[in-house]
Amino acid sequence: MSLDLPPRAGLSDLPFELLDLIFRPLCPTLARGPYLPLPWRQNIRSILRELKPFADLRLVSSSFNHTIAPIFFQEAIILISPFTCPERLKEFFRSGAAYMKSVVIFGHTEGRRPGTQWPSNAIKEALGNGLGLLTRLQNLECHGEHAAFADPFWFQTLTPNLASTVISLSITPVYQFQAGVYQSILSLGASLTHLAVVDWVGLVKEEIDFPTTLYLPNLTHLTLQHGNPPPHGLQKLFASIKDPWGRTPLRSLSILDLRTNYDVEVITNLLNTDRLGEQLTSLRLRLSLTKSTKAAEFPKVVLKACPNLKEFSYATRPVDRGIFSYLPPTLQKLEVTALPASHIHASTSVTPEAIAAFLRGQNRQALQAVSVRSLYSNPGMAVDPLLTAVCEEVGAKMSDGGNGSAMIFL
Asked: What is the DSSP string of 361-407?
């Protein structure tokens, strides 16, 4: 007597929910750092090589394709180069348009023939038409020599839909495409809640100026990193961050590693624009200060302009130890850099000894955590015996964050 056994179930027969739990952790993703919310320093070719075998799993079965396509296309990573085929780029967008919520574009001109136009009209059209298909896109990142926002008509004719969906924009322009900064913010500004501009060096031509009609009524998070933006450009940018009632919506501001040593007046003027500093709950400053920038005054005037902060990162060089006297009562998390006690400027700067004295004091109020990063020392300096002993004394917990950093939980 023969038995008709049911067919053996395979991986493809599992429910969609289980397949999603299996495949989602396997999809390679772009790394984001704690300060820079951009993947532009990562090797783009490497991540694309990692993504290809994952994408090829869609060919195994219809259930695999049904599961993997939404995961693979949720964040689309696109390399624009002289070797990009416009038709393949169009097909890529057509295949995943229904799933794309984030698009990260990298562009370079290596291998371009001398005298040829960049970006070509075919590339600009393919990219614009592709982005024009997206109805769920929320995050857009454009880095390098890409074709996005190459001119004002590109957005108006090909991608006007982005203005109603994109809420987060990160842009890293090369020198000759600085105008793209202005065009992208002008095009998407009304809907943006998050904006990051990296390597902004200001105006390329005298006739290019910051748009007077710029309007950022919903921007809550702003990051400016590297570059050399002119003070008048920054002032116009900050003045445009206001809602219909003239109030600033900005709550988080990061100004990191700019190549210009701005005077304290420049920073405080920005913070005092429409009383912007009073609305901030998070402020990150990482600057290289000189004697001419009045380094000792920076913490005092900055914190005076921002009395309602909950998070404050002040990674300047050096950090004046007077900073502990100016912390607002609302502050919950503080990050500072510290010099070793043997440093020539230790007597006026934040050191482990100065942090220990602060922890013993009574002016910590709402503070919940202190992150300490060391400068000019070996990686183990931040977790030294003095801080360890003081933490035990005041009932705090300290952990080694690695790379010369320590986290103290109060």
From this structure: SS--TT--EEEEEE-SS-TTSSS-HHHHHHHHHHT-EEEEEETTEEE
